[in-house]
Specification:
This protein is 33% helix and 25% strand. By secondary structure, it is α/β, with parallel strands linked by helices. The chain has 2 domains: 5-68, Ribosomal Protein L25, Chain P (Beta Barrel); 78-241, Alpha/beta knot (3-Layer(aba) Sandwich), CATH 3.40.1280. Helix 5 (177-185) crosses helix 7 (226-241).
Length: 244
């Protein structure tokens, strides 16, 4: 079983002692039943990961950085997932699984057919906590940014900032992704992946994204739920890049 991983703010070196946040100290004691002298992994703000020795005292937790761990190779493509906010807690699932798969950035957005309730600050902070926890669990050395939600017009304005933009849409030409992706990925280092809300994108919205430079693509014969579509499309990109 791998050692639990924690993120700390700041840049450190072997031999430094770092403090862990109060909620993480509580997790170590109450959930993981950790004791002083146990091994943990610590990742600093530069993305360096260290093996560290834990020290618990009262309600505080510190860790002595013993040695640097070998970082996994970076993904070939940095992908931003623009997700139409769904209702209920479905966005929690999207954030967690997208983090596990390696998404670099998540941008929640609203559009004409959005059915989710108005996004409150508390929800955004919750998504950020979920991303952090998922990154710890899956062994990432970074936490994906969960951006402030944007409206559709602001989303369209972001498309041109990426080397490649893909928008799965149920009315797109039914051409297999395996036939389209290789040419689209050529020389691409950053990508935008736009997923409509539960009600889908309106025709005008899909074509507005296309006019901004996005490629409308098909994910096959079945209509996928919004919380599934982005993960399927991203997994296809990972496969095409040789990352899975």
């Amino acid at each position: 079983m791998s050692a639990p991983r924690f993120f700390v703010a700041g840049i450190f070196a072997i031999g430094d002692t770092v403090g862990l946040a109060a909620d993480e100290a509580r997790k170590l004691v109450v959930v993981l039943r950790a004791r002083s002298g146990d091994a943990i992994e610590v990742v600093d703000s530069s993305g360096r990961a260290y093996r560290a020795l834990l020290h618990l005292e009262d309600k505080r937790a510190t860790a002595l950085l013993e040695r640097e761990l070998t970082a996994p190779p970076a993904l070939k493509l940095r992908v931003t997932l623009a997700q139409g906010v769904p209702k209920g807690q479905k966005m929690d699932y999207v954030v967690e699984k997208a983090t596990e798969l390696g998404i670099a950035r998540i941008v929640p957005f609203t559009s004409t057919r959005s059915t989710g309730e108005r996004t409150r600050e508390g929800k955004i902070e919750r998504w950020r906590r979920i991303a952090r926890s998922a990154a710890q669990q899956c062994g990432r050395t970074d936490v994906p940014e969960v951006a402030e939600p944007v409206d559709f017009a602001a989303l369209v304005a972001q498309v041109g900032a990426y080397d490649l933009a893909l928008v799965p849409w149920e009315l797109a030409e039914a051409q297999p992704l395996r036939d389209r992706i290789p040419a689209l990925l050529e020389d691409a280092e950053t990508a935008f992946l736009g997923i409509g809300p539960e009600g889908g994108l309106e025709d005008a919205e899909a074509h507005a994204l296309e006019a901004a430079g996005a490629h409308l693509v098909s994910l096959g014969r079945r209509i996928l739920r919004t919380e599934t579509a982005g993960l399927v499309a991203y997994a296809a990109l990972l496969y095409a890049c040789g990352d899975i």
